[in-house]
Design a protein that fits this description.
Length: 894
């Protein structure tokens, strides 16, 4: 290679497992398998960097790429002793996409490249198998036409179907060589009709065209949707693998298949499974065109190849220390490995495989926790499952049974297209996407649907693999399913679009109407083991956000070690209290307000007692009233309309007039930046007094009742200035001390602290820490105030555009904006520690349940994260993983 020119191409023998970023997952692993001495057809990989350079350069090959492609092709030709496009004995290659993160079926692959009108005759001649040669050519014309030239594959498929009908055969394998020869002519005519030119005959031209098309497939819609769903960055690009073809379509001793080393639905080990087809090529198995045969049958058909495959799969599992999903082809009895990757699996299978692999001695506990466990999939363990007993008792019989492709039960209205699923799903409808088979183009609909049902395809079909990856229940290959027009028939039952059905992806059964479902066991024994590893590893404490005793109990069951945020505003909304609250707000007399607050106090004492009882012995952070007061009053518009109506009818209502006047007085242009948080408390100090007193009274009550008090943390929201906090704190402490002075018994520990949710507070944390025994980062508001985004407006509006256009990699309200908001958090923590070395630091925004954000909290040395009760297990695991990746606080000074 010339000096100074980037290396864009690597032979398989030059690559390895740790070059995934550059070679993509497929390329890196194919290289790896080559090194392991496994039977892999030779080839080379064009890097992801070349893809990015191509796309950024206005879809032009970067300098040097063409020359390197030529050189590596020449080497491949020399090794094979055949030339691409040669009329006598052609070399054929596949051109395969493959990004760093596996995106099954989302981008494009072309097989049998190098065939043209001359070389197909040569291939027929040297193999003595014209049927095989023309079968390969018709496949190539279709794939090349579709992927590279945009001639929709359905045109070709329709022609194939027509030919089969004409010949009265069910399957493409029953077509003769002459049939297929004729079909290639038909396909070429279809190509010409749509493109206005003949099918490209030059092998080089074909190769360059295919490489370009694969590069460009990085940007197609389904690939984009898939990346959004799985949080894969959009700027990585795909590699392109050019590989010598081996043929599963040469006859009855050839075939192709896909296999998993373990059951990816249940996780059970020792049960490799998969699908294969004899006399078939690549896409046939996954595309659900013919119904494939279960892997176990391969043992009878080709015992030698089967045994070698089993050995190879075992070796790959031991090498990658993870369940593998492999693709293989058998040519005339000889096995070739075409791909291996870590297999997609459901949440249940994931925890089971992790535990089993530890027990099998394949990986250590730490390794399993780090690599085999995915905290984000844990909530799927809580997906509803079909209630078998309830189904029996209701006398419900399944209408049909298909392949149990992705576990979990789902009920919804039938929709037949991905677009309809997306439309209705986004409108809040529960829908089941019902299809003959799903293709990667259906991804957006699969995302929006509650569940997926298909007529064709097995556990390795695209529908199944994608559904498992996103935790969507799916039943595939329902033979009894027929779709005609807007009518769906399942066995003897007929449905219209919009009718309700239930699918059970755990058993594969399909039911009419809504079948009963149950919540699964959140204490799955495998999950419990994983949580033990995580708890042993983690440094971060996990608390929950809980406003009610029920939430608190649930949080504790899930392993929360305290409450990090108890909001008090909901307590003011309970129906019997609203009149008191409203009267309190409407009165402009301090004494009257104090009297009404005194009436509210017993309610608050009750609220806190219930929560403290559940959390005794643990810290509970209670946030004083935060929202603006007008939220508790009827709306301005509503009152104005009533008043206008009264006036028309000559009715007088002085009470309403007074309400309206007060609402007008409290009305704010910008309530988010108005009288709320500590500002509200300082406007109405009697509210702080009432709440602080009630909190302490409740703590005393629980101590007296149970002998154990909670560790009370009283939190002042939305502080910007040290002086605000000092004032509020004085009011709190005076009230609390008064309550304590009146009670006897063991002392009750309490702390007063603040939320850090304004940039000014973060910037002046050294001052604020003088008044705060703890900081809790309220990252929802801190994100809003740092970015100047109102969350609701952003999510309803421009944020979608930002994400689509890749201006932002993720929603900053879901995953912490580490560079901006995170920088403020880090500064605030660092500013506070010298002033108050024992300050407690935590986070209570929604980010507290997001694995990536939890990693950040660990890195900057926070003491705890607080999240919704249902995410406590997620947080425990994410905190454990973070601890294995780096020291607590290691990122603090960065
Ligand atoms: P995907 O990422 O969609 O799985 P692949 O690039 O893996 O796409 O190709 C799909 C299938 O095409 C493979 O599983 C394999 O069966 C077939 N295939 C790809 N390359 C070759 C090859 N060189 N020889 C034979 N079959 C191939
Ligand atoms: Mg593949
Ligand atoms: Mg807030």
């Amino acid at each position: 290679m010339a000096e100074g020119v980037t290396k864009w191409v690597y032979a398989f023998s030059e690559g390895s497992r740790d070059m995934r970023d550059l070679l993509g997952g497929k390329g890196a692993n194919v290289a790896d398998m080559t090194r392991l001495g496994l039977p892999v057809p030779q080839g080379f990989t064009v890097t992801t960097a070349a893809c990015i350079a191509y796309l950024q350069g206005g879809n032009a090959f970067p300098e040097g790429l063409e020359a390197q492609l030529d050189a590596y092709l020449a080497a491949l030709e020399a090794d094979a002793g055949k030339r691409l496009g040669d009329a006598a004995d052609p070399l054929l290659v596949s051109v395969r996409s493959g990004a760093r993160d596996s995106m099954p079926g989302m981008m494009d692959t072309i097989l049998n490249l190098g065939l043209n009108d001359a070389s197909v005759e040569g291939l027929a001649e040297v193999t003595g198998n014209p049927r095989f040669a023309f079968d390969s050519y018709r496949r190539f014309i279709q794939m090349y036409g579709d992927v590279v030239c945009g001639v929709d594959k359905h045109h070709f498929e329709a022609a194939l179907s027509a030919l089969k009908d004409q010949r009265e055969v069910a399957s493409d394998v029953d077509l003769t060589g002459d049939d297929l020869r004729g079909l290639t002519d038909t396909f070429k005519a279809i190509f010409q009709e749509h493109r206005g030119e003949t099918f490209p005959q030059g092998a080089r031209e074909q190769l360059y065209g295919a490489v370009r098309a694969v590069f460009e497939s990085w940007e197609n819609r389904r690939a984009y949707d898939y990346r959004r769903l799985h949080g894969i960055p959009h700027d990585l690009g795909t590699a392109v693998n050019v590989q010598r073809m081996v043929f599963g379509n040469t006859g009855e001793r050839s075939g192709t298949g896909v296999a998993f080393t373990r059951d990816n639905a249940t996780g059970e080990s020792g049960k490799p499974f998969g699908d294969f087809l004899m006399n078939a090529q690549g896409e046939d198995v996954v595309a659900g065109i013919r119904t494939p045969r279960p892997l176990a049958e391969l043992a009878d058909v080709l015992p030698g190849a089967f045994a070698e495959l089993m050995d190879t799969m075992g070796l790959l599992e031991r090498t990658y220390r993870d369940m593998q999903d492999v693709e293989f082809t058998i040519e005339d009895g000889r096995l070739y490995m075409l791909q291996t990757r870590n297999g997609k699996r459901g949440a249940l299978a994931r925890v089971r495989i992790a535990v089993d692999m530890v027990d099998e001695g394949l990986v250590t506990e730490d390794e399993a926790l780090r690599n085999l466990v995915d905290p984000a999939s844990v909530p799927q363990l809580l997906l509803p499952q079909l209630d078998r007993v309830g189904v029996k008792m209701a006398g419900l019989d399944p209408l049909a049974t298909g392949v149990n492709a992705s576990p979990g039960a789902a009920t919804g209205r039938i929709v037949l297209t991905a677009d309809a699923a997306e439309r209705e799903g986004q409108a809040g409808e529960d829908v089941i996407l019902v299809r003959e088979e799903t293709t990667p183009d259906d991804l957006h609909g699969m995302i929006a649907a509650r569940g997926i049902m298909t007529a064709r395809g097995g556990k390795t079909s695209h529908a199944a693999v994608v559904a498992v990856g996103m935790g969507r229940p799916a039943v595939c290959g329902v033979d009894a399913l027929q779709i005609s027009g807007d009518t769906v028939t399942v066995g003897n039952a007929t449905f219209a679009v919009g009718d309700v059905i239930t699918i059970d992806g755990t058993s594969g059964n399909v039911y009419a109407g809504a079948a009963p479902v149950t919540q699964p066991d959140p204490f799955n024994p495998y999950l419990v083991r994983v949580l033990e590893w995580a708890d042993r590893a983690r440094v971060l404490r996990i608390r929950a956000n809980a406003d009610t005793p029920e939430d608190a109990r649930r949080a504790r069951e899930f392993g929360a070690e305290g409450i990090g945020l108890c909001r008090t505003e909901h307590m003011f909304f309970a129906s019997e209290r609203v009149p008191l609250v409203q009267a309190m707000i409407l009165s402009d007399d301090d004494d009257e307000r104090a009297r009404l607050l005194a009436l509210l106090r017993p309610f608050q004492v009750d609220d806190f007692t219930g929560i403290f009882r559940e959390m005794r012995g643990l810290p509970v952070t209670i946030r004083l009233l935060d929202p603006p007061l007008h939220e508790f009053l009827p709306g301005l518009l509503e009152l104005s309309l009533t008043k206008a109506e009264n006036e028309r009818n000559g009715v007088r209502n002085p009470e309403l007039d007074a309400q309206l006047a007060r609402v007008l007085a409290l009305h704010e242009e910008n309530p988010m930046l108005g009288t709320r948080g500590v500002r509200l408390g300082l406007e109405f100090p009697e509210i702080i007094r009432m709440q602080a007193g009630a909190i302490m009274e409740a703590a005393v009550a629980v101590r007296d009742e149970t002998g154990e008090a909670p560790l009370v943390e009283i939190m002042i929201p939305l502080v910007a200035f040290e002086q605000e906090l000092r004032r509020a704190r004085q009011i709190v402490v005076a009230e609390v001390e008064q309550v304590l002075a009146m009670s006897e018994g063991a002392p009750i520990e309490y702390r007063v602290g603040t939320m850090i949710e304004l940039p000014r507070a973060a910037l002046t944390s050294a001052q604020i820490a003088r008044e705060a025994e703890f900081f809790s980062f309220g990252t929802n508001d801190l994100t809003q105030t740092t970015l100047g985004f109102s969350r609701d407006d952003a999510e309803k509006g421009f944020l979608g555009t930002y994400l689509r256009q890749n201006l932002l990699a993720s929603n900053p309200f879901e995953t912490l904006d580490v560079d901006g908001v995170g920088c403020l958090i880090r500064m605030a923590a660092e500013g506070a520690r010298p002033v108050r070395p024992d300050i407690k630091l935590g986070i209570c925004g929604e980010h507290g349940g997001d694995p990536a954000s939890i990693g950040f909290c660990h890195d900057v040395g926070l003491h705890y994260v607080s999240c919704s009760p249902f995410r406590v297990q997620v947080a425990r695991i994410a905190a454990g993983q973070a601890a294995l990746r780096g020291a607590h606080g290691a990122g603090a000074a960065a």
